[in-house]
Amino acid sequence: MALGNTPFYIARRYLIAKKGSQAVSFITGLAAFAMMVAVAAMFIIISVFSGLEDLNKEFISNLHADLTISSVKGKNIPNLSKIINILKNEKEINHFSKIIEEKVYIDYKNTGEIAYLRGVDSAYIKVNPINKNIYYGSYPSFKYVNEVAMEVQLNSRLSIPVSSDTDIATLFMPKPGKGIISKEEDIFNKKEIYVSGIFPGNDQLNNYIIAPIELAEQLLSLPKNSAYQIVIQLKNPENADIVKEDLYQKIGNSIIIKTKAEENAAFWKMINMEKLMIYLIFALVIFITTFNLAGAVTILQLDKKEQARALVSIGFTLKGLRKIYFNTGLLIVIFGVLSGLILGSIICFIQLQIGVFKATEALPFPVRIVPFNYLIVSSTSLFFGVMVSWVFSRINKKLFLEK
Q1: How many CA atoms lie within 13 A of 159 on its CB side?
Q2: End-to-end CA distance of the chain, in Å?
Q3: What is the DSSP string of 70-116?
Q4: Residues 298-322, mean pLDDT to the nearest whole number
Q5: 3-class state of residue 221 by DSSP
Q6: What does pLDDT average to over the chain?
Q7: Could you say which of 78, 154, 264, 368 has the lowest number of CB atoms within 10 Å?
Protein backbone atom coordinates (compact mmCIF):
# COMPACT_ATOMS: atom_id res chain seq x y z
CA MET A 1 0.00 0.00 0.00
CA ALA A 2 1.46 3.34 -1.06
CA LEU A 3 1.92 5.94 1.65
CA GLY A 4 -0.22 8.41 -0.30
CA ASN A 5 -3.22 6.09 0.00
CA THR A 6 -2.85 5.57 3.75
CA PRO A 7 -5.30 8.33 4.83
CA PHE A 8 -7.96 6.97 2.48
CA TYR A 9 -7.37 3.39 3.65
CA ILE A 10 -7.70 4.40 7.33
CA ALA A 11 -10.82 6.46 6.59
CA ARG A 12 -12.40 3.46 4.85
CA ARG A 13 -11.53 1.24 7.83
CA TYR A 14 -13.11 3.74 10.22
CA LEU A 15 -16.40 3.39 8.33
CA ILE A 16 -16.54 -0.35 7.74
CA ALA A 17 -14.79 -1.65 10.86
CA LYS A 18 -17.12 -3.62 13.14
CA LYS A 19 -15.32 -2.63 16.33
CA GLY A 20 -15.67 0.81 17.82
CA SER A 21 -18.09 3.08 19.57
CA GLN A 22 -21.76 2.39 18.84
CA ALA A 23 -22.47 6.10 19.10
CA VAL A 24 -19.98 6.84 16.30
CA SER A 25 -21.44 4.10 14.12
CA PHE A 26 -24.94 5.42 14.72
CA ILE A 27 -24.02 9.03 13.93
CA THR A 28 -22.09 8.18 10.76
CA GLY A 29 -24.94 5.88 9.64
CA LEU A 30 -27.46 8.64 10.38
CA ALA A 31 -25.41 11.16 8.36
CA ALA A 32 -25.27 8.79 5.37
CA PHE A 33 -28.99 7.99 5.65
CA ALA A 34 -29.96 11.67 5.90
CA MET A 35 -27.86 12.47 2.84
CA MET A 36 -29.44 9.59 0.92
CA VAL A 37 -33.01 10.73 1.74
CA ALA A 38 -32.28 14.39 0.89
CA VAL A 39 -30.64 13.48 -2.43
CA ALA A 40 -33.46 11.08 -3.37
CA ALA A 41 -36.10 13.71 -2.52
CA MET A 42 -34.35 16.38 -4.57
CA PHE A 43 -33.93 14.04 -7.54
CA ILE A 44 -37.60 12.97 -7.44
CA ILE A 45 -38.93 16.54 -7.21
CA ILE A 46 -36.72 17.81 -10.04
CA SER A 47 -37.72 14.80 -12.18
CA VAL A 48 -41.39 15.59 -11.50
CA PHE A 49 -40.82 19.19 -12.59
CA SER A 50 -39.14 17.91 -15.77
CA GLY A 51 -42.24 15.79 -16.40
CA LEU A 52 -44.52 18.76 -15.74
CA GLU A 53 -42.44 20.82 -18.17
CA ASP A 54 -43.03 18.23 -20.90
CA LEU A 55 -46.73 18.10 -20.03
CA ASN A 56 -46.99 21.89 -20.26
CA LYS A 57 -45.16 21.91 -23.59
CA GLU A 58 -47.61 19.38 -24.97
CA PHE A 59 -50.51 21.33 -23.54
CA ILE A 60 -49.29 24.66 -24.95
CA SER A 61 -48.59 23.10 -28.35
CA ASN A 62 -52.30 22.30 -28.66
CA LEU A 63 -53.36 25.80 -27.62
CA HIS A 64 -50.99 28.02 -29.55
CA ALA A 65 -49.87 28.03 -33.14
CA ASP A 66 -46.26 27.88 -34.28
CA LEU A 67 -46.56 31.48 -35.51
CA THR A 68 -49.17 34.16 -34.80
CA ILE A 69 -49.61 37.27 -36.96
CA SER A 70 -51.33 40.40 -35.64
CA SER A 71 -51.46 44.07 -36.58
CA VAL A 72 -49.02 46.73 -35.36
CA LYS A 73 -51.74 49.41 -35.28
CA GLY A 74 -55.29 48.60 -34.30
CA LYS A 75 -56.81 45.14 -34.17
CA ASN A 76 -57.69 44.46 -37.79
CA ILE A 77 -54.81 43.15 -39.92
CA PRO A 78 -54.19 45.46 -42.91
CA ASN A 79 -53.71 44.17 -46.48
CA LEU A 80 -55.17 40.82 -45.47
CA SER A 81 -55.61 39.46 -49.01
CA LYS A 82 -51.95 40.21 -49.82
CA ILE A 83 -50.77 38.48 -46.64
CA ILE A 84 -52.93 35.42 -47.32
CA ASN A 85 -51.46 35.07 -50.82
CA ILE A 86 -47.95 35.23 -49.37
CA LEU A 87 -48.83 32.58 -46.78
CA LYS A 88 -50.30 30.30 -49.45
CA ASN A 89 -47.04 30.41 -51.38
CA GLU A 90 -44.80 29.84 -48.35
CA LYS A 91 -43.45 26.28 -48.61
CA GLU A 92 -42.72 25.96 -44.88
CA ILE A 93 -46.35 26.64 -43.90
CA ASN A 94 -48.62 23.63 -43.49
CA HIS A 95 -51.91 25.35 -42.52
CA PHE A 96 -53.09 28.78 -41.40
CA SER A 97 -56.35 30.18 -40.06
CA LYS A 98 -57.93 33.59 -39.49
CA ILE A 99 -59.20 34.59 -36.02
CA ILE A 100 -61.31 37.41 -34.61
CA GLU A 101 -61.48 37.49 -30.82
CA GLU A 102 -63.43 39.91 -28.63
CA LYS A 103 -65.34 40.08 -25.35
CA VAL A 104 -69.11 39.69 -25.61
CA TYR A 105 -72.07 39.54 -23.26
CA ILE A 106 -74.07 36.31 -23.48
CA ASP A 107 -77.60 36.03 -22.14
CA TYR A 108 -79.76 32.93 -21.70
CA LYS A 109 -83.15 33.23 -20.02
CA ASN A 110 -82.13 36.41 -18.16
CA THR A 111 -78.89 34.90 -16.90
CA GLY A 112 -75.85 36.66 -18.30
CA GLU A 113 -72.06 36.32 -18.39
CA ILE A 114 -69.10 38.14 -19.90
CA ALA A 115 -67.38 35.73 -22.28
CA TYR A 116 -64.72 35.66 -24.97
CA LEU A 117 -65.92 35.05 -28.50
CA ARG A 118 -63.29 33.50 -30.75
CA GLY A 119 -64.41 33.62 -34.34
CA VAL A 120 -62.50 31.14 -36.48
CA ASP A 121 -62.64 29.80 -40.03
CA SER A 122 -63.02 26.16 -41.01
CA ALA A 123 -59.22 25.70 -41.22
CA TYR A 124 -58.77 26.47 -37.52
CA ILE A 125 -58.91 22.82 -36.41
CA LYS A 126 -55.97 22.05 -38.71
CA VAL A 127 -53.86 24.51 -36.70
CA ASN A 128 -55.44 23.87 -33.29
CA PRO A 129 -57.29 20.52 -33.17
CA ILE A 130 -59.76 21.68 -30.53
CA ASN A 131 -62.43 19.53 -32.19
CA LYS A 132 -60.69 16.50 -30.63
CA ASN A 133 -61.43 17.93 -27.17
CA ILE A 134 -65.20 18.10 -27.67
CA TYR A 135 -66.51 15.60 -25.15
CA TYR A 136 -70.24 16.35 -25.41
CA GLY A 137 -72.05 17.24 -28.61
CA SER A 138 -70.07 18.12 -31.72
CA TYR A 139 -67.76 20.78 -33.08
CA PRO A 140 -69.56 23.44 -35.21
CA SER A 141 -70.15 22.27 -38.78
CA PHE A 142 -69.76 25.83 -40.19
CA LYS A 143 -72.95 25.33 -42.22
CA TYR A 144 -74.64 27.85 -39.95
CA VAL A 145 -73.19 31.15 -38.74
CA ASN A 146 -74.78 30.89 -35.28
CA GLU A 147 -73.57 27.37 -34.41
CA VAL A 148 -70.98 27.51 -31.58
CA ALA A 149 -68.94 25.38 -29.18
CA MET A 150 -68.76 26.51 -25.55
CA GLU A 151 -66.36 26.04 -22.65
CA VAL A 152 -67.84 23.67 -20.07
CA GLN A 153 -67.84 25.94 -16.99
CA LEU A 154 -69.44 28.80 -18.91
CA ASN A 155 -72.11 26.45 -20.24
CA SER A 156 -72.74 25.02 -16.75
CA ARG A 157 -73.29 28.47 -15.24
CA LEU A 158 -75.75 29.43 -17.97
CA SER A 159 -77.35 25.92 -18.19
CA ILE A 160 -77.73 26.10 -21.97
CA PRO A 161 -78.90 22.79 -23.51
CA VAL A 162 -76.57 21.33 -26.10
CA SER A 163 -77.65 20.55 -29.69
CA SER A 164 -81.08 22.09 -29.16
CA ASP A 165 -82.52 24.20 -31.99
CA THR A 166 -85.18 25.68 -29.71
CA ASP A 167 -83.02 26.67 -26.72
CA ILE A 168 -80.99 29.62 -27.94
CA ALA A 169 -78.80 32.20 -26.23
CA THR A 170 -78.11 35.78 -27.33
CA LEU A 171 -74.76 37.50 -27.81
CA PHE A 172 -74.54 41.26 -27.30
CA MET A 173 -71.78 43.47 -28.68
CA PRO A 174 -71.77 47.28 -28.12
CA LYS A 175 -71.99 49.24 -31.36
CA PRO A 176 -69.23 51.73 -32.17
CA GLY A 177 -70.18 55.27 -33.09
CA LYS A 178 -71.74 58.44 -31.74
CA GLY A 179 -75.17 59.97 -31.66
CA ILE A 180 -78.40 59.95 -29.74
CA ILE A 181 -79.61 56.58 -28.47
CA SER A 182 -83.35 56.18 -28.99
CA LYS A 183 -83.78 52.38 -28.88
CA GLU A 184 -81.93 49.22 -27.84
CA GLU A 185 -80.83 48.47 -31.41
CA ASP A 186 -78.75 51.67 -31.34
CA ILE A 187 -76.65 50.28 -28.47
CA PHE A 188 -75.97 46.63 -29.31
CA ASN A 189 -75.49 44.27 -32.16
CA LYS A 190 -77.29 41.06 -31.23
CA LYS A 191 -77.00 37.52 -32.54
CA GLU A 192 -78.83 34.41 -31.45
CA ILE A 193 -76.69 31.27 -31.08
CA TYR A 194 -77.17 27.60 -30.27
CA VAL A 195 -74.56 25.38 -28.68
CA SER A 196 -73.51 22.33 -30.68
CA GLY A 197 -70.75 21.05 -28.39
CA ILE A 198 -68.83 21.46 -25.13
CA PHE A 199 -65.05 21.52 -24.69
CA PRO A 200 -63.02 21.45 -21.42
CA GLY A 201 -61.70 24.66 -19.96
CA ASN A 202 -58.16 25.58 -18.94
CA ASP A 203 -56.15 28.69 -18.11
CA GLN A 204 -56.10 29.69 -21.79
CA LEU A 205 -59.71 28.92 -22.77
CA ASN A 206 -61.83 29.75 -19.72
CA ASN A 207 -65.16 31.44 -20.61
CA TYR A 208 -64.59 30.94 -24.34
CA ILE A 209 -67.07 30.50 -27.17
CA ILE A 210 -65.75 29.12 -30.46
CA ALA A 211 -67.85 30.31 -33.41
CA PRO A 212 -67.61 30.81 -37.20
CA ILE A 213 -65.64 33.95 -38.01
CA GLU A 214 -68.64 35.36 -39.92
CA LEU A 215 -70.55 35.64 -36.63
CA ALA A 216 -67.75 37.71 -35.10
CA GLU A 217 -67.65 39.95 -38.19
CA GLN A 218 -71.40 40.61 -37.96
CA LEU A 219 -71.32 41.34 -34.22
CA LEU A 220 -68.39 43.72 -34.61
CA SER A 221 -69.73 45.32 -37.81
CA LEU A 222 -66.52 44.36 -39.62
CA PRO A 223 -66.22 43.93 -43.39
CA LYS A 224 -66.05 40.42 -44.76
CA ASN A 225 -62.66 38.69 -44.81
CA SER A 226 -61.40 40.52 -41.71
CA ALA A 227 -59.02 39.10 -39.13
CA TYR A 228 -57.46 40.18 -35.86
CA GLN A 229 -54.95 37.34 -35.98
CA ILE A 230 -53.63 34.69 -38.34
CA VAL A 231 -52.38 31.52 -36.68
CA ILE A 232 -49.94 29.33 -38.58
CA GLN A 233 -48.91 25.70 -38.33
CA LEU A 234 -45.48 24.95 -39.79
CA LYS A 235 -44.27 21.76 -41.40
CA ASN A 236 -41.25 21.93 -39.10
CA PRO A 237 -41.88 23.94 -35.90
CA GLU A 238 -38.13 24.16 -35.25
CA ASN A 239 -37.86 26.54 -38.22
CA ALA A 240 -40.24 29.07 -36.64
CA ASP A 241 -37.61 31.83 -36.27
CA ILE A 242 -36.39 31.37 -39.86
CA VAL A 243 -39.93 31.51 -41.29
CA LYS A 244 -40.70 34.51 -39.10
CA GLU A 245 -37.80 36.50 -40.55
CA ASP A 246 -38.71 35.43 -44.08
CA LEU A 247 -42.32 36.61 -43.62
CA TYR A 248 -41.16 39.95 -42.24
CA GLN A 249 -39.12 40.50 -45.40
CA LYS A 250 -42.06 39.65 -47.66
CA ILE A 251 -44.86 41.38 -45.73
CA GLY A 252 -43.08 44.29 -44.09
CA ASN A 253 -43.38 45.85 -40.65
CA SER A 254 -47.12 46.51 -40.68
CA ILE A 255 -47.63 43.27 -38.76
CA ILE A 256 -46.27 41.57 -35.63
CA ILE A 257 -45.21 37.93 -35.83
CA LYS A 258 -44.71 35.94 -32.64
CA THR A 259 -43.46 32.40 -32.20
CA LYS A 260 -45.05 29.97 -29.77
CA ALA A 261 -42.27 30.63 -27.26
CA GLU A 262 -42.79 34.40 -27.50
CA GLU A 263 -46.55 34.03 -27.08
CA ASN A 264 -45.97 32.13 -23.85
CA ALA A 265 -42.90 33.96 -22.57
CA ALA A 266 -44.56 34.96 -19.28
CA PHE A 267 -45.83 31.42 -18.70
CA TRP A 268 -42.40 29.83 -19.21
CA LYS A 269 -40.77 32.52 -17.08
CA MET A 270 -43.12 31.56 -14.26
CA ILE A 271 -42.40 27.83 -14.74
CA ASN A 272 -38.63 28.41 -14.74
CA MET A 273 -38.89 30.62 -11.65
CA GLU A 274 -40.83 27.91 -9.82
CA LYS A 275 -38.24 25.33 -10.85
CA LEU A 276 -35.43 27.59 -9.61
CA MET A 277 -37.17 28.15 -6.27
CA ILE A 278 -37.70 24.40 -5.81
CA TYR A 279 -34.03 23.80 -6.57
CA LEU A 280 -32.92 26.46 -4.06
CA ILE A 281 -35.22 25.05 -1.36
CA PHE A 282 -33.86 21.53 -1.78
CA ALA A 283 -30.29 22.82 -2.00
CA LEU A 284 -30.93 24.42 1.39
CA VAL A 285 -32.33 21.11 2.68
CA ILE A 286 -29.16 19.30 1.55
CA PHE A 287 -27.00 22.01 3.14
CA ILE A 288 -28.83 21.56 6.44
CA THR A 289 -28.52 17.78 6.08
CA THR A 290 -24.74 18.10 5.83
CA PHE A 291 -24.68 19.29 9.45
CA ASN A 292 -25.23 15.62 10.33
CA LEU A 293 -22.03 15.02 8.40
CA ALA A 294 -20.28 17.75 10.39
CA GLY A 295 -21.36 16.04 13.61
CA ALA A 296 -20.18 12.65 12.34
CA VAL A 297 -16.70 13.98 11.45
CA THR A 298 -16.38 15.82 14.78
CA ILE A 299 -17.50 12.83 16.86
CA LEU A 300 -15.13 10.60 14.90
CA GLN A 301 -12.22 12.90 15.74
CA LEU A 302 -13.04 12.74 19.44
CA ASP A 303 -13.58 8.98 19.40
CA LYS A 304 -10.35 8.28 17.53
CA LYS A 305 -8.18 10.61 19.62
CA GLU A 306 -6.01 7.76 20.95
CA GLN A 307 -5.49 6.34 17.46
CA ALA A 308 -4.52 9.84 16.30
CA ARG A 309 -1.80 10.03 18.95
CA ALA A 310 -0.54 6.62 17.89
CA LEU A 311 -0.41 7.70 14.25
CA VAL A 312 1.50 10.86 15.19
CA SER A 313 4.00 8.78 17.14
CA ILE A 314 4.83 6.74 14.03
CA GLY A 315 5.35 9.82 11.88
CA PHE A 316 1.90 10.95 10.79
CA THR A 317 1.55 14.72 10.32
CA LEU A 318 -1.37 16.97 11.16
CA LYS A 319 -2.04 17.24 7.42
CA GLY A 320 -2.26 13.46 7.18
CA LEU A 321 -4.77 13.30 10.06
CA ARG A 322 -6.88 15.94 8.39
CA LYS A 323 -6.89 13.89 5.18
CA ILE A 324 -8.20 10.89 7.14
CA TYR A 325 -11.18 12.80 8.53
CA PHE A 326 -11.79 14.58 5.23
CA ASN A 327 -11.82 11.26 3.37
CA THR A 328 -14.17 9.82 5.98
CA GLY A 329 -16.64 12.64 5.39
CA LEU A 330 -16.16 12.34 1.65
CA LEU A 331 -16.96 8.61 1.72
CA ILE A 332 -20.14 9.29 3.69
CA VAL A 333 -21.16 11.91 1.13
CA ILE A 334 -20.42 9.67 -1.86
CA PHE A 335 -22.35 6.79 -0.32
CA GLY A 336 -25.30 9.11 0.44
CA VAL A 337 -25.31 10.63 -3.07
CA LEU A 338 -25.05 7.30 -4.91
CA SER A 339 -27.63 5.52 -2.78
CA GLY A 340 -29.93 8.57 -2.95
CA LEU A 341 -29.74 8.70 -6.75
CA ILE A 342 -30.41 4.97 -6.98
CA LEU A 343 -33.36 5.21 -4.59
CA GLY A 344 -34.75 8.25 -6.41
CA SER A 345 -34.35 6.54 -9.80
CA ILE A 346 -36.19 3.45 -8.56
CA ILE A 347 -39.11 5.51 -7.23
CA CYS A 348 -39.28 7.55 -10.46
CA PHE A 349 -39.19 4.37 -12.56
CA ILE A 350 -42.04 2.86 -10.51
CA GLN A 351 -44.02 6.07 -10.99
CA LEU A 352 -43.43 5.94 -14.75
CA GLN A 353 -44.53 2.32 -14.97
CA ILE A 354 -47.41 2.21 -12.47
CA GLY A 355 -48.32 5.82 -11.63
CA VAL A 356 -48.58 5.28 -7.88
CA PHE A 357 -48.86 8.97 -6.98
CA LYS A 358 -51.79 10.80 -8.59
CA ALA A 359 -52.18 14.50 -9.39
CA THR A 360 -55.87 13.81 -10.05
CA GLU A 361 -57.89 10.61 -10.08
CA ALA A 362 -57.10 10.08 -13.75
CA LEU A 363 -53.67 11.75 -14.05
CA PRO A 364 -50.55 10.43 -12.28
CA PHE A 365 -47.76 12.87 -11.53
CA PRO A 366 -45.62 13.10 -14.68
CA VAL A 367 -41.96 12.16 -14.30
CA ARG A 368 -39.04 12.48 -16.72
CA ILE A 369 -35.61 11.04 -15.93
CA VAL A 370 -32.86 12.97 -17.73
CA PRO A 371 -29.04 12.97 -17.33
CA PHE A 372 -29.01 16.67 -16.41
CA ASN A 373 -31.04 15.92 -13.26
CA TYR A 374 -28.38 13.46 -12.12
CA LEU A 375 -25.71 16.09 -12.77
CA ILE A 376 -27.42 18.94 -10.94
CA VAL A 377 -28.37 16.83 -7.89
CA SER A 378 -25.00 15.11 -7.51
CA SER A 379 -22.98 18.31 -8.06
CA THR A 380 -25.06 20.23 -5.50
CA SER A 381 -24.79 17.45 -2.92
CA LEU A 382 -21.07 16.91 -3.48
CA PHE A 383 -20.38 20.65 -3.28
CA PHE A 384 -21.94 21.01 0.17
CA GLY A 385 -20.62 17.64 1.35
CA VAL A 386 -17.03 18.34 0.30
CA MET A 387 -17.17 21.84 1.77
CA VAL A 388 -18.46 20.63 5.17
CA SER A 389 -16.01 17.69 5.24
CA TRP A 390 -13.11 20.04 4.52
CA VAL A 391 -14.14 22.61 7.14
CA PHE A 392 -14.73 20.11 9.96
CA SER A 393 -11.64 18.02 9.19
CA ARG A 394 -9.48 21.03 10.11
CA ILE A 395 -8.62 19.61 13.57
CA ASN A 396 -6.65 21.58 16.09
CA LYS A 397 -3.26 20.20 17.11
CA LYS A 398 -4.30 20.39 20.78
CA LEU A 399 -7.06 17.85 20.12
CA PHE A 400 -4.68 14.89 20.04
CA LEU A 401 -1.88 16.31 22.25
CA GLU A 402 -4.06 16.95 25.29
CA LYS A 403 -4.54 14.09 27.73
Answers
A1: 3
A2: 31
A3: EESSSSSPSSHHHHHHHHHT-TTEEEEEEEEEEEEEEEETTEEEEEE
A4: 67
A5: coil
A6: 82
A7: 78
